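Hey, quick one: can you model this chain's 3D structure?
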Amino acid sequence: EVAQVESTSGLEWEIEEPESVDNESEKPETPTGLTFEAQVACLDPQTGLLVQETRAIPEAPTRSQRLLQILGSLHDTPKDASRTAAVPPELQFRSVFVDLDRNLVLIDLAGLPEKWKASSSSMEIGQALYAIVHTISYQNPSYQTVQFLVNGRESNESPGGFLLSEPFAPSEDWVKSPAL
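Sure thing. Here's the predicted structure for all 180 residues.
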């Protein structure tokens, strides 16, 4: 089913109803055991900054489904025991849409964690949002901006002061510089 999403800026996207990443019966069929390598962002808790990690991700048949698989891996425990996942497990991804004409990736979130609506720290929220943004940008240099939808709609919520209706671009302020 295709749905129209209209943003407050007047832009419209046609999107299909998302497949749940948590429902095994709705996942597309892919050959068992095939994986690809992807760079993902995880957290260095000592500095509070994001660091890259290479992960083996289960293959998926389409670009959007591969990106959804990569985003789902942000909940996984990093290989390096000194790092932690930057994205809380309560933050679930419904779907991903790529607009190559505008170098934009739309990420549809399945609601926001309750703690984000209460009194969660802006640092924790920023780390999670920018882990998502950087993980997407690591996949393809043309993915320059990420915009978040919440339950299929543009959201004016601003957890931790981050306005979700605005596009996010990678920011080196959130990334740990590699050791020389």
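One thing worth noting: The chain has one domain: 36-174.
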